[in-house]
Design a protein that fits this description.
alpha+beta, disordered N terminus, 4 helices, 10 strands, 5-stranded mixed barrel, two-stranded antiparallel sheet
Length: 218
């Protein structure tokens, strides 16, 4: 469903039920009806708590992400504020351009050293090989705290003890944790930043772990 004005999108609360007026049908398939908002002429009115009681549970709002501790409780789609440990090179497969970015959220401080790699999250960015609009993640992001939103959780890489996520066309990343971007990740970003300032040795070990993984894959 298109929301129309971006300002309207940022005012909406995930998990809140709304009565929506002024939508236009676009198309549909067997399972989905697609609607288009018409900018300011579309009205979004939140339902009262009493009215919401008539609806069954239909939403599980996303939470901030801790690689080791909370991943098992996550929805398939999630957001994360994390330190970028390594930005891989773009490479091309048969039909795709692909790039891997490795991050950690600082939860390693709560783990034993033997479980360090469990705090790494590998994020896959990809596009069709003929897509000239594909913008690689900049290598200068390494060492920065970045908010990634609308990532899709994938199966864990059991061999390398890595959590894995995929960035889709709905995903994005931000450096600011103020409105209208990643305000809900502000505390997680502050935690990751404090951890990074006192964890240089651990971060270097994670970089070595990433390089060993990449080397094994080549």
């Amino acid at each position: 469903m298109g929301l129309g004005l971006k300002a309207t999108q940022f005012e909406l609360v995930e998990g809140q039920a709304y009565v929506v007026a002024g939508l236009m049908p676009l198309n549909s398939d067997s399972n989905t009806l697609y609607l288009q908002a018409r900018d300011s002429s579309t009205k979004w009115n939140p339902l009262s708590p009493l009215a919401i009681e008539d609806f069954g549970p239909f939403s599980n709002p996303r939470n901030r992400f801790y690689c080791q501790i909370r991943v098992k409780f996550l929805c398939p789609e999630f957001d994360v504020a994390a330190l970028v440990v390594f930005v891989g090179e773009v490479y091309t497969t048969a039909h795709q351009k692909k790039q891997w970015v490795f991050v950690t959220d600082g939860s390693i401080s709560e783990l034993g050293s033997e479980e360090a790699s469990n705090s790494l999250l590998a994020i896959s960015f990809c596009a069709a090989s003929v897509d000239d609009s594909f913008a690689p993640v900049n290598y200068n992001l390494k060492g920065s705290i970045v908010g990634f939103v609308n990532l899709i959780k994938r199966a864990k890489d059991q061999m390398n003890h890595l959590w894995v996520a995929e960035a889709t066309e709905n995903s994005d990343y931000f450096f600011s944790f103020e409105p209208p971007h990643c305000l809900h990740l502000k505390n997680a970003a502050a935690y990751a930043e404090r951890w990074a300032k006192t964890s240089n040795l651990t971060i270097e070990k994670l970089k070595v772990k990433v390089l060993s993984i990449i080397g094994d894959c080549n």
